[in-house]
Design a protein that fits this description.
About 35% of the residues lie in helices and about 10% in strands. The chain is built from 3 helices and 2 strands. It has helices at about 1-5, 15-25, 30-40, and strands spanning about 45, 50-55. Strands 1-2 form a two-stranded antiparallel sheet.
Length: about 80
């Protein structure tokens, strides 16, 4: 992901996006601790202002009741 950020394919989360992610998570970590753990994973970025996370999906993952909404499919090559 770092290479695609450097190439301008997408950008790192801005301060507002990080705060939104922190608030949504509702964890016991401080904001600084949260940022350290999340940034090291290199799985969050923005494309044209839209935040995305790269997440491992199991073949038979159960449907959850998360407050996210699907906008459609996007094919990526990695």
């Amino acid at each position: 992901m770092a290479q695609l950020t450097k190439a301008g394919e997408w950008s790192e989360l801005d301060e507002a996006a990080w705060h939104e992610a922190y608030q949504r998570r509702g964890c016991a970590l401080s904001f600084e601790e949260f940022m350290w753990h999340e940034r090291r994973k290199l799985n969050k970025a923005l494309i044209d202002g839209t935040k995305f996370d790269l997440t491992l999906m199991q073949e038979q993952a159960e449907q959850d009741e998360s407050p996210s909404r699907k906008l459609g499919f996007q094919s990526i090559q990695a």
